[in-house]
Fold this protein.
Amino acid sequence: MNKKVTTLYSSKVWLNEEASPSSGNVCAYDGRIVYDNQEYVESYLRISDCRKTIVLHKADYDERADFIAKMELLHNEIGKFIEHLKSTENELTNEKPV
């Protein structure tokens, strides 16, 4: 078995305060893996919180531009949701956990 990794970008960030019992984190990775003399692109964004995880990755059939467009769309939607949450007119009173 022949395996070689070339990391172009790697970031891991905790989303909660250090003393928090929650384990929220985000991990972004972009690199190349050579496995059995075949090169593979490994690009993903992994978001985890407690026991739930989502992984958005560049599929083999995606062009790099397709993956970038997916990340930009996600970025825009997160920004709009943050603005919604900050808006006092959308604030619920007496919020209860689900």
Remarks:
- The two ends are 48 Å apart (CA to CA).
